[in-house]
Amino acid sequence: MIYIYDGELTKIIESTEIETMPDTSDMITPDDSPSTDGDGEVVYETPDGVTVEGDNAFPENTVVKVESVQKGEIFERAQKSLSKIAVKDKIAVFEFTATADNAVVQPDGKVKVTFDLPANLSAENLKMFYVAEDGKTEEIKITVDASNKKVVAELEHFSTYVLCNVKAGAITTPDTDDNANVFPVVVLMLASLSAFVAYSKRKQRI
């Protein structure tokens, strides 16, 4: 008796001779069934020296990508935005993106990012900034481990981020519109106070 597989059942055929066995490459047995391990996991695509942690901040099947940007529009915008405070050539630009089901997504919570200190930077006067598309910047809090040459940040939004060495004495937090409006108010209050004091003195003399 010879056993052959017809795609549905194993049948017994008596008194039949065949020279070759049928192709079994597409047969699925319990041991060969496709594994579902890894389905739904967040995938991280990062350059050497950058690690990202934060599965719980993304939906299933998200692809998190970090690119080291060294030229082009993004790099030039970042360089221009920080030109007044960053030491020349002491800048490293990174673009963070996340996609799920072919749509761009943002983390729902904090994502821990660890950088190896870029070769062109030093731990001294090291800062990190978010650079918006309009060129505005915002300083991001970082932890620097100078002995191990590691930099850690927690991000809540993916976009363009820059590590750079800043010039000594550089003001890294620019004045906001609120601060700009406070100064004229203070001046006006002081002027009013001076006028009131002068008026009071004149009244006392009369």
Summarize the model shown.
The chain is α+β, with helices and mostly antiparallel strands and 206 residues long.
Question: How would you portray this structure in words?
Answer:
- With 206 residues, the chain is α+β, with helices and mostly antiparallel strands.
- Helix content is 18%, strand content 35%.
- The chain is built from 2 helices and 13 strands; from the N terminus they run βββββαββββββββα.
- The strands form 3 sheets. Strands 3, 5, 6, 7, 9, 10 and 13 form a 7-stranded mixed β-sheet that branches.
- The protein is globular, with a radius of gyration of 32 Å.
- The N and C termini lie far apart (133 Å).
- Residues 10-16, 24-38 and 175-183 have low confidence and may be disordered.
Question: What attributes characterize this protein structure?
Answer:
206 residues; alpha+beta; seven-stranded mixed beta sheet; four-stranded antiparallel beta sheet; 2 helices
Helix-strand layout with pairing:
Blueprint: E1 2-5, E2 10-13, E3 43-45, E4 50-53, E5 62-69, H1 73-81, E6 86-100, E7 103-104, E8 111-116, E9 126-131, E10 137-140, E11 142-145, E12 150-155, E13 160-166, H2 177-205
Parallel strand pairs: 3-5
Antiparallel strand pairs: 1-2, 4-8, 5-6, 6-7, 6-13, 8-12, 9-10, 9-13, 11-12
Quaternary arrangement of the chains shown? single chain
SSE series: EEEEEHEEEEEEEEH
Q: Indicate the overall shape.
A: globular
Number of strands: 13
- Label the structural class: alpha+beta
Largest sheet: 7 strands, mixed
Q: What is the radius of gyration computed over CA atoms, rounded to a whole number of angstroms? A: 32 Å
Head-to-tail CA distance between termini:
133 Å
Residue-averaged pLDDT: 79
Helix content: 10-25%
Number of helices: 2
Strand fraction equals: 35-45%
Low-confidence stretches: 10-16, 24-38, 175-183
